[in-house]
Design brief:
Largest sheet: 2 strands, antiparallel
Strand content: 5-15%
Helix content: 55-70%
Strand order of the largest sheet: 1-2
Order of helices and strands: EEHHHHHHEEHHH
Distance between the termini: 11 Å
Structural class: mainly alpha
């Protein structure tokens, strides 16, 4: 349903909010035994080819800065999730990549809004994570990770006052994070195998961040729409089987089209939160 455009003034910027777009059509379920590699979630509907992975940072699909901020914060925490798993697996180079180059673009999008609300950048926290990684010190990394997570929470809290009602924006951010996971997974998979481990790790991290974010607001969401939350959790549990472990599987357990379908169904379930009056 279209809504009248309005201006939001907050986080140091004035942002024009266009009317909500119509919800996407749910793609058909693929035939049993048939692996169909779905075009990336960033593709224009009806086009062909695969566009995934980092294109979610240039998708232009979230014009409301409040939603984009929360989505990007979850993406950043997703990189931290997978960096932590990399540390536990002894994949120190991968861990460093996720806390530096892979997440740098996301941090540069978040930090101007954080500074506008008096919250410092992540620079010192990233340096502490890198220091622990160079030392291959898991305990030091755990401490640095907690400090980073706490700082991210401060940034989110500073922006929360602009997100009313909060559940509308958080539910939308969770869905958009799952779309990013779907996009990255699409880029990671060729046929029945994972051909790009980095994209697989990105997508797994985003899924983990989305599930953690849902757990934080689950009680409040359930009080408003318990049936919808039950369906979201059920589908999220099914979706998670595509990423059973940090190490990519030798053969995928779910093709990219099914991942996209489940994310689309979760979006349908969650839409009630941003469609509420």
């Amino acid at each position: 349903m279209a809504r009248t455009p309005k201006l939001w003034i907050g986080i140091g910027l004035t942002v024009a909010l266009p009317a909500f777009a119509q919800r996407p059509t749910v793609p058909p379920q693929p035939a049993a035994g048939r692996l169909v590699h779905l075009a990336g979630k960033d593709n224009v509907p009806g086009t062909t080819g695969v566009v995934g992975g980092e294109t979610y940072l240039r998708d232009g699909g979230i014009s409301d800065t409040r939603t984009r901020f929360s989505r990007d914060m979850l993406l950043l925490l997703g990189h931290l999730e997978i960096a932590s798993e990399a540390v536990e697996s002894g994949a120190w180079d991968a861990a460093k990549t996720h806390v530096t180059t892979s997440s740098e673009d996301i941090r540069t999008k978040l930090e101007p809004y954080m500074r506008g609300q008096g919250v410092p950048t992540f620079e010192k926290l990233v340096a502490a994570l890198v220091k622990a990684i160079h030392a291959k010190n898991r305990r030091e990394f755990t401490v640095a990770r907690q400090a980073f997570t706490d700082h991210a929470a401060r940034g989110s809290l500073a922006v929360k006052k602009f997100q009313t009602p909060y559940l509308r924006f958080q539910a939308r951010a969770i869905v958009e994070t799952l779309k990013a996971a779907s996009s990255a997974y699409d880029s990671a998979v060729t046929g029945q195998a994972v051909s790009d481990a980095a994209e697989y790790h990105d997508s797994r991290g985003f899924l983990l961040a989305a599930r953690r974010a849902l757990a934080q607001v689950e009680l409040e969401m359930s009080q408003a729409h318990p049936d919808h939350v039950r369906d979201i959790k059920r589908r999220l549990a099914e979706l998670a089987t595509a990423w059973r472990a940090f190490t990519p599987p030798t053969a995928i357990t779910m093709n990219a089209e099914v991942v996209a379908l489940l994310v689309s169904q979760i979006e349908d379930d969650a839409a009630v939160f941003w469609q509420d009056k």
